[in-house]
Amino acid sequence: MLNVVSKDEAVGIVKNKTNRAVPKSEKVNIENALGRTLCEDIVSPENVPAFDRTTVDGYAVRADDTFGASASIPAQLEIAGEILMGENAGFSLESGKCVKISTGGMLPAGANAAVMVEHTDNADGLCLVYKSVAPYENVTKTGDDIANGETALKKGTVITPAEIGILASLGVYEIPVYKKPVIAIISTGDEIVKGDIKAGQIRDVNTYLLSSAVQSFGCTPYVYGAVRDDYEEIRNAVSVCLEKADAVIVSGGSSAGARDMTVKIIDELGEVFFHGIAMKPGKPTIFGTVNGKPVFGLPGHPLAAYFVFRLIVCEYIKQIMNLPEEKSIKNAVLSVNIPSNHGREEYLCVKLNENGEAVPLHTKSGIISVLRQAEGFIKIPRDSEGIDRGTTVGIYRL
Amino acid sequence: MLNVVSKDEAVGIVKNKTNRAVPKSEKVNIENALGRTLCEDIVSPENVPAFDRTTVDGYAVRADDTFGASASIPAQLEIAGEILMGENAGFSLESGKCVKISTGGMLPAGANAAVMVEHTDNADGLCLVYKSVAPYENVTKTGDDIANGETALKKGTVITPAEIGILASLGVYEIPVYKKPVIAIISTGDEIVKGDIKAGQIRDVNTYLLSSAVQSFGCTPYVYGAVRDDYEEIRNAVSVCLEKADAVIVSGGSSAGARDMTVKIIDELGEVFFHGIAMKPGKPTIFGTVNGKPVFGLPGHPLAAYFVFRLIVCEYIKQIMNLPEEKSIKNAVLSVNIPSNHGREEYLCVKLNENGEAVPLHTKSGIISVLRQAEGFIKIPRDSEGIDRGTTVGIYRL
Question: To bridge A36 with a disulfide, which of A108, A177, A372, B91 should be the other Cys (CB 3.0-4.6 Å)?
Answer without folding.
Answer: A177
